[in-house]
Request: fold
Amino acid sequence: MVGVSRNTVESHQKFKTKYDLPFPLLSDPDGKVCEKYGVIKEKNMYGKKVKGISRSTFIIDEKGRIVHAYRGVKVKGHIRELLEALTV
Reply:
């Protein structure tokens, strides 16, 4: 398991420490990884159109293939959904 976002390495360290995450968080400040996974989307923020990340989760197999993609993820209930998918 790994997390990726456009935030800085420093902010990732604080977040990881705060929530005691047992997996690495990778910084993608130029958004190249986010672009490749198609998670950069146009959003409306306070009436202004901006590009941002659509929170997504990908299950990737041992061969590096995406076996399931969850797009537009809402935090509440998502972990339960993932655990169910991974225990099948």
Summary: The mean pLDDT is 91. Residues 1-38 form one domain.
